[in-house]
Specification:
It comes from Effrenium voratum. It is a single chain. With 346 residues, the chain is mainly alpha-helical. It has one domain. α2 runs antiparallel to α9 and α5 runs antiparallel to α7.
Length: 346
């Protein structure tokens, strides 16, 4: 099932295609998108972990700033080549007015949460194994649900609460089963997850409605702000007062790792494009389920290829986590269908 109406012109396909050609093209793209997104996401996570090693490039602030700068530049280039991919910036019917008040009210809170989340999630690789961090990230739906309740976006319901309590217990079993537990890594990733959840809530509150930012437009609008905020912290560190958590590389280190950094940055932008295409062609539930498969691939890759230790308790806990996310996705889909049916009835 595609995510766009047949009557709308898809910016990702060429004009003038016959219905059969378009249908075949849609089918091929829908089949290729999930494995492509899994590969891109797993590769980005693995390269991030590699770069954060003490003897490689352990500078999360600088690496995220590079991501922000080059993803913004690549986004501008894509905007010039294919404006239709950015409907929130180019389509008169969906265009979002990027005023100063919009930036301060909507974009700034999202950028702050996103920047902190990116830096801390990369910093966590210094302390914990990739498999363990992936297990911790699974519980992010708990943070999002609790914040949604506080913000009035969601209403409390027993079913979701049971699923999320089960998720918390499963996550705790993953923590208990971690043989090389690091409190610093646990707190760092926990804070990153809270910031990621807050970013999601801000997006729901201020970027909803018909004139909302699409995925690629969001990248183009938010990433420069993230880069600016992080560069401000680096300047403060250099000019006003040194900050212990801000470390900077020598130019020689950047030159030595230039090809790894180029691959990592390009991978990040390609992943953003794939996510935008995925949400255009497939349903949100398919996106979440693909994320589940990606998480399984990463944990298996960490255990089998990188020989990271995963205890039996963690295997059990992670399996329950995956089941909880699937149950959560199905419950959300059913709730959405019920709401749509009630609207049609009224």
């Amino acid at each position: 099932m595609t995510g766009h109406a047949e009557s709308e012109e898809d910016p990702l396909l060429k004009k003038g295609q016959s219905p059969i050609t378009r249908k075949i093209g849609d089918t091929v793209i829908c089949c290729c998108l999930p494995p492509a997104m899994i590969a891109a996401s797993a590769t980005l996570i693995r390269t991030n972990q590699y770069l954060m090693q003490p003897d490689v490039f352990p500078y999360p602030f600088i690496m995220v700033i590079m991501h922000c700068i080059f993803c913004s530049l690549f986004g501008l280039l894509l905007l010039a080549l294919k404006p239709a991919l950015f409907p929130a910036l180019t389509d008169p019917d969906r265009k979002v007015e990027l005023s100063a008040s919009f930036y301060s009210r909507a974009i700034l809170p999202i950028a702050i949460c996103f920047a902190v989340s990116l830096v801390l999630s990369n910093m966590a690789y210094k302390y914990c194994t990739l498999a363990f961090l992936q297990m911790l990230k699974e519980s992010n739906i708990v943070n999002i649900y609790v914040m949604s309740l506080l913000a009035g976006i969601e209403k409390f319901s027993t079913g979701p609460a049971v699923i999320l309590v089960t998720m918390l217990l499963a996550t705790w079993s993953c923590v208990e089963g971690e043989l090389n537990f690091s409190l610093a890594g646990f707190l760092t990733q926990g804070t990153a997850s809270l910031c990621e959840a807050a970013k999601t809530i801000f997006q729901c509150l201020v970027l909803s409605g018909p004139r909302r930012l699409d995925p690629l437009s969001t990248v183009l609008v938010v990433m420069p702000m993230c880069g600016f905020l992080l560069m401000t912290v680096v300047v403060f560190n250099n000019v006003v007062m040194p900050l212990s958590f801000v470390t900077q590389p020598h130019l020689s280190e950047i030159v030595a790792m230039r090809w790894y950094l180029a691959l990592n940055i390009s991978n990040a932008f390609v992943l953003n494009v794939l996510i935008a295409m995925f949400l255009s062609y497939l349903s949100p539930v398919a996106y979440i389920l693909t994320g589940n498969v990606k998480d399984i691939v990463i944990v298996l890759m960490s255990s089998w290829l990188m020989h990271e230790t995963v205890s039996h308790m963690q295997v059990f806990g992670f399996t329950v986590q995956i089941c909880c996310v699937c149950a959560w996705s199905i419950a959300k889909q059913q709730k959405q269908k019920s709401a749509e049916q009630s609207e049609e009835t009224n």
